[in-house]
Design goal:
Elements (H helix, E strand, L loop, with lengths): L3 E5 L4 E2 L1 E6 L10 E3 L5 E5 L15 E5 L2 E4 L3 H8 L1 H7 L5 E7 L5 H5 L11 H14 L4 E13 L2 E4 L15 E5 L2 E5 L4 E3 L2 H21 L8 E12 L6 E11 L13 H25 L12 H5 L9 E8 L6 H15 L2 E2 L2 E6 L1 H25 L12 H16 L10 H29 L8 H9 L34 H15 L14 H8 L4 H15 L10 H5 L10 H10 L3 H52 L2 E3 L2 E3 L2 H57 L3 H7 L13 H4 L3 H14 L7 H28 L1
Parallel strand pairs: 3-7, 3-16, 8-15, 8-16
Antiparallel strand pairs: 1-18, 2-17, 4-5, 5-6, 9-10, 9-13, 9-14, 11-12, 14-15, 15-18, 19-20
Bound molecules: adenosine-5'-diphosphate (ADP) and magnesium ion.
Subunit structure: Interacts with HYDIN.
Main location: cytoplasm
Protein name: Kinesin-like protein
């Protein structure tokens, strides 16, 4: 619902320590002295007052504190000790005020005061008054006040307000519970109080119970710790502010600190003493540990007192310790002990911080408002940009199913592109790609598992077993397995698909002779060798024979195992098909005459065009070279003519040079050659461009041929036929698509219906959508079940 954030203030504060001296007519002036600033107290112990004191023992102490309250009124005590702590609680700081001291020194008087005299009321009623007064002064905030009153006696928890008629006695004992929001006491009644008066009556109720208990339960009230807690929660009255603050003010009246176990105490008293001594020293330990910034573990859980106060001690709250002492000489030893405790506490530092929380409900409301606004903004944008109505809501099942269907159709090739609508939709498209992909992977694998026994290549025991059976070679390759390709374990001898055999196939097989059928061991031709990179010559018709020879030789070298004869009766029911795939070169010939015939034809055509162009290019080049040579000869002849002319003396006519006919003809010839050269050169350039283009086409065709071949090969020899049968009806499987995808696109009719519906529904307004959604979902479910049943039947066949 809500979570807490502690806003660090960064400033460290000390625990505020005060001393209040109980007024007395017998004040030990000799022994107790106050400093001038009222912030220190000096104790002088006369040696003779303590029997058995050794000479060198300390007799003087000086205690520095935050204030000494001597003859101070309840009013002044409150002003000095509590006012700031309470004020800060309304700003979100936890505060704890504790009264410490020996029994009778005035702790209860300070904390509660006398209930019969208003003037002598203590910190508790004054704190409640202040809280309600401050609430009145803050109309901008809705502030609630709750109170609880807990007593801890001999490590047991008592609810001092459980006697209220609406609370009722608790069935189970109270426990201290910690959660991320802090510490609370399970079973302790917490009372909402809307006004001072209510709060006071609760306080009196508790006080009365405390007194009654001390009589009826034989419980000495000075032996118990009492914690009165005021819980404040302040919400801003403006809706936009989702932050709110919570705080607690713990007003603690501690059990008497006097050492009880010294002499003669026994039974109940001894037990009480032990508990008190322990809890007070644990309190001290915890507070000291809190002040030590290096300490990570604080021993809160050692006793109920520190555990219950866990989030209100030291740390991030305002802490005040008021030590009540007697002013009489007779009590000096206890006084000294109390003052020591106070001065140790003074060294502890705390780091008060605001308890800021977030109202989740308000936050959601605010975010909803913001979201609605942004959606409106988007709608305006869309309409300005002339976009059709786009839905930015999260996708529902049906929309996701539609995207799934789009992705499948896209993968099959029946959908050219997926329109981009918005970010959410793009993300979903990618999601569905992943979904489809993983489904297909599983589908293919399980189909293979149905058909073949798969053996882990690292499972040597299994491999040696199948080796013995003659199903696998010494290297762990399965019989008839092309490298890195197959994983089917075949048992039937190789036989090509009947009825699809071509003439060329037969001759090819003859060429291969029986050795090809002895294939086994490592595959004769690896998948790699059929790759574009190395297959150029292989696929060129002219060099085919050489390659085949090559393969045959390699097969002979490596073949060692005869495939086992088939005796599977199942195989005979279906059109027989080899369980051991044929070697790839053989299969490739089949492929070129079957499904690959068209690509192969185009490939050959391109190839012959390429060859023709190459031939022409080489002819042109030869011609160019010839022209070049002739040009050289002509140039030489011209040069000769020129030198002749120079020797014979030049003829000039009106500034024009006169040359003879022979020279003139040579010049004409050179000009003509140059023209020829240019034309031929231009031709060559065009041819080269054409060759380059043709080469590209040929490469593409070859790649396509090989890719399609691989797919065909897998389909024909690895993907079970029953699966393929299931895939066949209803559409052309484009070669090159993974056919398993067909099985996955379910309920497309439903999708179409939905799209149509959407168009019909939209004008009717959004209210109708839920109705139609329900309708479509039901139809979809039916559709899906129908399709699944159909598929299962197909599989069973
Ligand atoms: P504690 O709770 O420490 O055992 P109390 O508060 O019960 O001690 O005080 C014991 C008695 O002394 C009570 O009767 C109380 O009214 C009285 N008393 C204590 N402090 C003062 C004080 N400052 N002024 C007047 N009376 C006091
Ligand atoms: Mg008391």
């Amino acid at each position: 619902m809500m979570w807490r954030k502690n806003a660090r203030m960064g400033t460290r504060k000390k625990v505020h320590t005060f001393v209040r001296v109980k007024p007395t007519d017998d004040f030990a002036h000799e022994m107790i002295k106050y400093g001038d600033d009222n912030k220190s107290i000096d104790i002088h112990l006369k040696k003779d007052t303590r029997r058995g004191v050794v000479n060198n023992q300390q007799t003087d102490w000086s205690f520095k504190l935050d204030g000494v309250l001597h003859n101070a009124s309840q009013d002044l005590v409150y002003e000095t000790v509590a006012k700031d702590v309470v004020a800060q609680a309304l700003d979100g700081y936890n505060g704890t005020i504790m009264c410490y001291g020996q029994t009778g020194a005035g702790k209860t008087y300070t904390m509660t005061g006398t209930t019969e005299n208003y003037k002598h009321r203590g910190i508790l009623p004054r704190a409640l008054q202040q809280v309600f007064r401050m609430i009145e002064e803050r109309p901008t905030h809705a502030i609630t006040v709750r109170v609880s009153y807990l007593e801890i006696y001999n490590e047991s928890l008592f609810d001092l307000l459980s006697t209220l008629p609406y609370v009722g006695p608790s069935v189970t004992p109270m426990t201290i519970v910690e959660n991320p929001q802090g510490v609370f006491i399970k079973g302790l009644s917490v009372h909402l109080t809307s006004q001072e008066e209510d709060a006071f009556s609760l306080l009196f109720e508790g006080e009365t119970n405390r007194i009654i208990a001390s009589h009826t339960m034989n419980k000495n009230s000075s032996r118990s710790h009492c914690i009165f807690t005021i819980y404040v929660e302040a919400h801003s009255r403006t809706l936009s502010d989702e932050k709110y603050i919570t705080s607690k003010i713990n007003l603690v009246d501690l059990a008497g600190s006097e050492r009880l176990g010294k002499s003669g105490s026994e039974g109940r008293v001894l037990k009480e003493a032990t508990y008190i001594n322990k809890s007070l020293s644990f309190l001290e330990q915890a507070i000291i540990a809190l002040g030590d910034q290096k300490r990570e573990h604080i021993p809160f859980r050692q006793c109920k007192l520190t555990h219950a106060l866990k989030d209100s001690l030291g740390g991030n709250c305002n802490m005040v310790l008021l030590t009540n002492i007697y002013g009489e000489a007779a009590q000096l030893e206890e006084t000294l002990s109390s003052l020591r405790f106070a001065s140790r506490m003074k060294l502890v530092t705390t780091e008060p911080a605001i308890n800021e929380k977030y109202d989740a409900e308000r936050m959601v409301k605010n975010l909803e408002k913001e979201l609605a606004l942004l959606k409106q903004e988007l709608a305006i944008h869309d309409s300005l940009a002339n976009r059709t109505l786009v839905n930015y809501d999260p996708m529902d099942e049906i929309q996701i199913a539609e995207i799934n269907s789009q992705v499948r159709r896209y993968l099959e090739g029946t959908l050219d592109e997926i329109d981009i609508i918005n970010l959410r939709q793009i993300q979903e498209v990618f999601n569905q790609f992943r979904v489809v992909l993983s489904q297909q992977e599983q589908e293919v694998e399980s189909a293979l598992r149905r058909k073949y026994t798969l053996i882990d290549k690292n499972d040597f025991a299994a491999i040696s077993a199948v080796q013995k059976a003659g199903l696998v070679d010494v290297d762990g390759h399965l019989v008839g397995e092309p490298d890195g390709q197959g994983f089917g374990l075949g048992v039937t001898p190789f036989s090509a698909k009947p009825g699809k055999k071509s003439k060329s196939k037969k001759t090819f097989k003859e060429q291969l002779s029986s050795s090809a059928r002895k294939e086994g061991a490592s595959s004769p031709v690896s998948g790699k060798e059929l790759d574009v990179s190395t297959s150029k010559t292989q696929l060129t018709p002219s060099s085919k024979e050489g390659d085949v020879k090559d393969m045959t030789i390699r097969e002979q070298e490596t073949s060692s195992l005869e495939p086992l004869p088939s005796d599977s009766p199942k195989e005979e029911l279906r059109p027989p098909r080899p369980s051991t795939p044929p070697p790839k070169p053989v299969a490739f010939e089949d492929f070129k005459n079957e499904r690959g015939s068209e690509i192969n034809r185009i490939f050959k055509e391109n190839k012959s065009i390429l060859n023709e162009r190459r031939k022409r290019a080489s002819e042109t080049t030869q011609r160019i070279n010839a022209i070049k040579r002739e040009m050289d000869v002509t140039k030489e002849a011209l040069n000769f003519q020129k030198s002749l002319r120079e020797k014979q003396g030049e003829y000039e006519n009106k500034g024009l040079m006169i040359i003879d006919e022979e020279e003139f003809l040579l010049i004409l010839k050179l000009k003509d050659l140059k023209k020829q050269y240019r034309t031929e050169y231009q031709d060559l350039r065009d041819l080269r461009a054409e060759i380059q283009y043709c080469q590209h086409l040929v490469d593409q065709c070859r790649h396509r041929l090989l890719t399609e071949f691989d797919i065909w090969y897998n389909e024909s020899f690895f993907i079970p036929e029953d699966l393929q049968v299931a895939l066949k009806p209803g559409g052309s499987i484009r070669p090159g698509m993974v056919p398993v995808s067909r099985i996955m696109s379910l309920g497309e009719d439903a999708q179409d219906k939905f799209s149509q519906l959407q168009q019909v529904v939209l004008p009717e307004g959004p209210d109708s959508v839920a109705f139609y959604n329900a309708k479509v979902k039901t139809e979809q479910k039916h559709n899906y079940l129908k399709t699944m049943m159909g598929l299962q039947q197909a599989h069973r066949k």
